Amino acid sequence: MGMNPLKGEILVKLADKDYKCRLTIDSIIRIEDELNEGILQVAQKISIADVRIKTLQVILKYALRGGGNDLQNNDINRIIANTGIVPIAAEVTKMLVAVLQDDSNESNTTSDEVNTQKKNQ
Predict the structure, then answer these.
(1) Which of helix, strand or coil describes residue 113?
(2) Using one digit for the tens of pLDDT, what is the confidence trace for 30-46?
(3) Rg (CA), the chain
């Protein structure tokens, strides 16, 4: 099972099994709607260990399904129970970092560069 990081795919180990996960823009929107919170807020809370099991379950549900795994809530609850909360939180963090980080090689234009460009027009 090949991973394509350019498509946001990541391999995670949960309950001694490897799963392909993928968070798309659509799945992030669904996560935000279901949790009634922005994805950056969710990521920040996880990073400071202020996370609910429901939050982990929701993110796992969409990430696992996005990776092609046909899992229901009770399957995900079993994975959480068999893996442990701290390892699950670590894996969810890896998924969020993978999808939220900006790996583009484009240069960031500073405000000074923008002002210079405007003056030269």
Answers:
(1) helix
(2) 999 999 999 999 999 99
(3) 18
- Report the C-alpha gap between 89 and 52 in whole angstroms: 10
> Cα–Cα distance between 77 and 54 in angstroms, integer?
9
Tens-place pLDDT, residues 86-102 = 999 999 998 898 888 86
Which residue bears the tokens 């996880």?
46
CB 31 within 8 A of CB 59: yes
Quote the tokens at residue 13: 């180990």
| Token pair of 45 as six digits | 């809370």
Q: Which tokens go with 42?
A: 């969710």
Q: Note the pTM of the prediction, 2 decimals.
A: 0.77
Local structure of residue 111 (DSSP, 8 states) = H
Asked if residues 110 and 42 have their Cβ atoms less than 8 Å apart, the reply is no
**In whole angstroms, how far apart are CA 2 and each of 35, 48, 98?**
31, 32, 16
Strand ranges inside the chain, DSSP E? 9-14, 17-22
Tell me the two tokens of residue 104.
């583009």
Tokens at 10, concatenated: 């990541």
